[in-house]
Amino acid sequence: MPLMPARCEMLPLPSRQVSLRIDGREVARWHAAEDAPRPFLFPLNGPSGACLTRMGHPGAANHDHHRSVWFAHSKLLGIDFWSENSLARIRQTEWFVYEDGADQAAMAVRLGWFDGHNPAPLIEQETILILRPLENGEYLLDWQLKFVPRSDQIEFQQTNFGFLAVRVVKSISAVFGGGQLTGSTGLKGEKALFSQPARWMDYSGPVVVETDPQRPIVTEGVTYLDCPQNATYPSKWHVRDDGWMGCAPCMDGVQVTTKAAPLVLRYGLFIHRDAAPESRIEAAIAAWQMIPVYQVVKGTRPHHQWELQGIAPPP
Fold first, then answer.
1. Residue 162: partners with Cβ closer than 8 Å, 6 or more residues away
2. How far apart are CA 134 and CA 223, in angstroms?
3. Which of 35, 48, 138, 11 minimizes the C-alpha distance to 84?
């Protein structure tokens, strides 16, 4: 039987890295080595191949914790998992699934939230990441997150910082480049969008295609999608014209997670060409909502320790 290469791949690499690929081209890379305080995704490449995110703030060294696309929270039992000013760390403790396919690829891992003193994690975070290609080099990243506490109950306290954040490349920033921050309400810019509810938030702007010897400039962007099943949907947002955006479900109050009913969150990232019009974003949302909700289960196939099982069909 001839070899049929998978269109979508999750390729494990040394140092706890995973390359996310479509048609053999890397579109993003997962980093979970212990030389950083928490896992992150970098690069996050646009359809042209240009990177759309960056490591750190363009003008502030005290924001080096801004690692492209990352998970964190600033107040878990009063412990700061957001900055790099505490001993708190988020570590990948186990991988479950690296799955390739024609229509999508999937990765499932377990992350432990460690306070820096107790060797046992305060929370175990099950993270399922789905890579789904769209047309013209665009694609979706679907983040399915479940937070299971070691104790019976634990609170993520009120804060603007957490859970999933995106730091765009300098040229897309409204302050440092020529980009534009736009919300689903049609409002634009930090002043109009900060602390306001929205179904999605988009950062689009010019990027240089470094893989082309002519270094052309194209417009591309990232749309960050809130899920209707999230408890605070449409959530309020912590956004900045300097180039970052984060959905803030704890902005107005705590989020409680328990062993019996763990906190479940879902977010999407739509990576697109141009300054995508609302119609294209809504079409991407429709495609995103067709991705099932998954859970990690014991494997039933030979040589598969774990598998992903769909538990909620698309609407």
1. 72, 73, 74, 75, 81, 82, 156, 246, 248, 249, 250
2. 14
3. 35
Q: Which of 215, 167, 152 is nearest to 68 (CA)?
A: 167
What would the DSSP string read from start to end of 9-62?
EEEEETTTEEEEEETTEEEEEEE--TTSSS-EEEEEB-TTS-B-B-BS-SS-GG
DSSP H helices, 128-242, are 190-193
Asked if residues 141 and 130 have their Cβ atoms less than 8 Å apart, the reply is yes
286: helix, strand or coil: helix
pLDDT tens-digit readout, 64-76 = 899 999 999 999 9
Q: Which domains does the chain have, with CATH numbers?
A: 8-312 (2.70.98)
Q: How many CB atoms lie within 10 A of CB 215?
A: 10
Q: Give the C-alpha distances (Å, rounded to integers) separating 109 from 56, 147, 159.
A: 25, 12, 26
Q: Please name the helix (run of DSSP H) or strand (run of DSSP E) that holds residue 278, with its range, or none.
A: helix 278-288
At residue 162, the 3 state secondary structure works out as strand
Number of other residues whose CB lies within 10 A of the CB of residue 200? 23
Residue 303's identity, in one-letter code, is: H
238-263 residue pLDDT tens: 999 999 999 999 999 999 999 999 99
**CA 77 remoteness from chain centre:** 23
pLDDT of residue 39: 98
State the Cα–Cα distance between residues 264 and 130, nearest whole angstrom. 16
Cis previous bond, 161, omega within 30: no
Structure pTM?
0.97
DSSP string, 180-198: EEEETTS-BSHHHHTT-B-
